[in-house]
Write a structure and sequence with these properties.
Oligomer: heterodimer
Number of helices of chain A: 0
Number of strands of chain A: 11
Structural class of chain B: mainly beta
Order of helices and strands of chain A: EEEEEEEEEEE
Largest interface: A-B, 24 and 26 residues
Distance between the termini of chain A: 41 Å
Shape of chain A: globular
Number of strands of chain B: 11
Shape of chain B: globular
Structural class of chain A: mainly beta
Chain lengths: 109, 119
């Protein structure tokens, strides 16, 4: 069955630096992959979607890449701010939408 | 607010109680979902409804009973739960049922969740 792996340990970075989060998957490449942000005590909020045939997608300070050879998606936040601190979930579609456990990002002033 | 409202936000219940979680979406979406989120685990898809018809039941124990009376409302009825059922229960909706078409119709809008504690 399809599995998604995200770093379970929190990522701590300094304000202003670029945060890079990793999403690896096994088996088949999905038709598309999504990234969500989740704040404590809240539901996930959709950020970006990248298709199977796209290498990169950008939205303001966010950038997502999708490498079907490596079976990996990278999520970048440039010029990170403390307000970016949250848990980031990746989700891929293979028959249904499957979520990773998420990586917690902490941006320190 | 996201347009998906869940009540109650917090619920504490004993193992013999009967309670219900409610979800309402104001987005005109056709598909609604229940997910379970436990600490440090991926979201677990429980039930999926499309146009008020249940289209997926992921081997969820019968002590969880969903109900979708119309396309805007979704309930999760709880009965004789176990302590391991304590979790954050998330409701979500999407324009249409998730498919391989990567259009915006497959983006999920989540509610804030109902934090359930079973004593």
């Amino acid at each position: 069955s399809q599995k998604i792996e995200q770093n379970s340990e929190a990522l701590n970075i300094q304000e202003g630096k670029t945060a890079t989060l990793t999403c690896n998957y096994t088996n088949y490449s999905p038709a598309y992959l999504q990234w969500y942000r989740q704040d404590p005590g809240r539901g996930p909020v959709f950020l970006l979607l990248i298709r199977e045939n796209e290498k990169e997608k950008r939205k303001e300070r966010l950038k997502v890449t999708f490498d079907t050879t490596l079976k990996q998606s990278l999520f970048h936040i440039t010029a990170s701010q403390p307000a970016d601190s949250a848990t980031y979930l990746c989700a891929l579609f293979y028959n249904k939408l499957i979520f990773g456990a998420g990586t917690r990002l902490a941006v320190h002033p | 607010e996201t347009g998906v409202t869940q009540t109650p936000r917090h619920l504490v219940m004993g193992m013999t109680n009967k309670k219900s979680l409610k979800c309402e979406q104001h987005l005109g979406h056709n598909a609604m979902y229940w997910y379970k989120q436990s600490a440090k685990k991926p979201l677990e898809l429980m039930f999926v409804y499309s146009l008020e018809e249940r289209v997926e039941n992921n081997s969820v124990p019968s002590r969880f009973s969903p109900e979708c009376p119309n396309s805007s409302h979704l309930f999760l009825h709880l009965h004789t739960l176990q302590p391991e059922d304590s979790a954050l229960y998330l409701c979500a909706s999407s324009q249409d049922l998730s498919t391989g078409d990567p259009g915006g119709a497959n983006v999920l809008t989540f509610g804030a969740g109902s934090r359930l504690t079973v004593l």
